[in-house]
Design brief:
Distance between the termini: 54 Å
Strand order of the largest sheet: 5-4-3-6-7-8-17
Structural class: alpha/beta
Helix content: 25-40%
Radius of gyration: 24 Å
Number of helices: 16
Largest sheet: 7 strands, parallel
Length: 459
């Protein structure tokens, strides 16, 4: 079969897609529809085979990316390698691509380990395109759009706020955290331990991970049907340079959750349930402890009664008022921390808690997820007038198709892969931080896939 790439009839292009996570299927399907022959590689052959089922032009293999010889053998057979595995493995894939002169696409942030390979990437004459999913990815495309428009008109970006949340749709959010897991509970909870750094009114601010939930505040998106709270996420300060907005005194990128989430998580942190320390009583056992006994041991409570457990929690955590205490204790009760149910022991408090959360807070078959992404720009125009402008994406998943998160990560990735195969992206280590890269990607996503942010001036 022949396809058109770059206006020429060519033999089918070939791609190696590494990973078997939930965002892989939209990328795989898009590439198949474009006539790309895709090899899906996973540690477990069964996972790869499941993804390839009923998708034309695909095959499944088992592959360990830490096996350099095996990785090189597969990468050398294709035109592009797509790395949708955990970010710590991307450098291994890129090194293989350097050796075999093959392009690479990832949805992850450009890491220091990738930057260390930049000279080798350039010398190999390959393209390594990163940060092209949702966040990072679509967020960049619309941040760069507005910033470029304002600068070309002689204006300035005085403040830039960007918040994104992957959440259950409101009708599926009936639990104390207002959250469900479409990916690893461990990954989500560990992200809460990262220090946040940002610019606020010209001052550099830092919030340690253990204090992150204390700075979460209600956030007005202008969409009054949503009760969101927002908190900063990781290090926002490099975006002053990446987005070319040296004039901005406030730059904050962060996370959206439903109200009630921070209070409960803050208590869980203070109780010690995010600890990664191993305990003998949490080691896998045919006769695991009850949650009641486990909670008492972690808190060093005097007994396992709910009254004494609540007293022990109050000694470690400060509640703002009675209403908050009632909400949090009710949430802990819902999770099962005061129950006689057996734990699923995983050696550490964090992993043991995750095992229960993933079981209790998984999506049901007919439930939808929601992605809400919003940029908020404070603009000073050349004539001195001020404007607040928002760019907003509100996307629901399809229970009979893709989740919103899978679609919004997987489709941009697939579009970027096609652009790499068509030779539309330059060589080197890339990310979507310039209009030259962003504009074609944004246009393609809007025109062919209906993915776009709605831009409004706030009155």
């Amino acid at each position: 079969m022949q396809k058109i790439f770059g206006g020429k009839s060519t033999a089918p292009k070939k791609a190696l897609l590494l990973g078997a996570g939930f965002v892989v299927k939209p990328t795989l399907t898009l590439l198949s529809e474009k006539g790309v022959e895709v090899t899906v590689a996973s540690r477990t052959l069964e996972s790869a085979q499941k993804l390839c089922k009923d998708v034309k032009g695909t095959k499944a293999i088992s592959l360990d990316v830490e096996n350099e010889e095996a990785l090189d053998a597969e990468v050398s057979k294709v035109d592009v390698a797509i790395s949708l595995i955990p970010y710590i493995f991307h450098p291994l894939v890129i090194k293989s691509a350097i050796r075999t002169k093959v392009d690479v696409v990832t949805t992850s942030y450009t890491s220091p380990a990738m930057v260390d390979l930049e000279t080798e990437i350039q010398n190999a004459g390959i393209t390594v395109m990163n940060e092209i999913g949702l966040d990072p990815g679509i967020d960049h495309l619309y941040a760069i759009k507005t910033i470029d428009e304002v600068h070309k008109a002689g204006g300035k970006i005085k403040s830039f706020l960007s918040y994104c949340g992957g959440l259950p749709a409101p009708e599926a959010s009936a639990n104390p955290l207002g959250y469900k897991f479409s990916w690893s509970a461990r990954g989500m909870l560990l992200a809460l331990s990262n220090t946040a750094k940002f610019f606020k009114d010209g001052v550099t601010k830092e919030v340690p991970g253990q204090d992150l939930m204390s700075v979460a505040k209600p956030y007005n998106t202008g969409y009054t049907g949503f009760a969101f709270v927002a908190y900063p996420n990781r290090d926002s300060t490099p975006f002053r340079e990446k987005y070319s907005i040296p004039e901005a005194s406030t730059i904050i990128r962060g996370t959206l959750r439903y109200s009630g989430f921070p209070e409960l998580i803050r208590c869980v942190v203070d109780m010690g349930f995010l600890s990664q320390d191993s305990h003998d009583f949490l080691k896998p056992s045919p006769n695991p402890l009850s949650w009641r006994d486990t909670t008492a041991k972690i808190l060093n409570a005097t007994s396992t009664s709910e009254h004494d457990l609540t007293w022990a929690i109050s000694s470690k955590h400060t509640f703002l008022n009675t209403d908050e205490k009632d909400h949090v204790i009710s949430g802990l009760r819902w999770i099962g921390l005061f129950s006689d149910d057996p734990i699923i022991p995983r050696s550490t408090p964090l992993d043991t808690l995750c095992a229960t959360l993933e079981k209790k807070m998984a999506y049901e078959d007919e439930e939808r997820d929601l992605v809400f992404l919003q940029h908020k720009f404070e603009i000073e125009h050349a004539d001195g007038k001020h404007e607040t402008r928002t760019s907003t994406l509100c996307e629901y998943g399809d229970p009979k198709g893709y989740s919103a998160m899978a679609k919004l990560v997987g489709i941009p990735c697939g579009v970027a892969v096609i652009q790499v195969l068509e030779g539309k992206l330059k060589k080197g280590l890339l990310a979507p931080y310039t209009p030259e890269i962003c504009n074609p990607l944004r246009d393609e996503l809007r025109e062919k896939y209906g993915i776009e942010l709605v831009e409004q001036t706030v009155v």
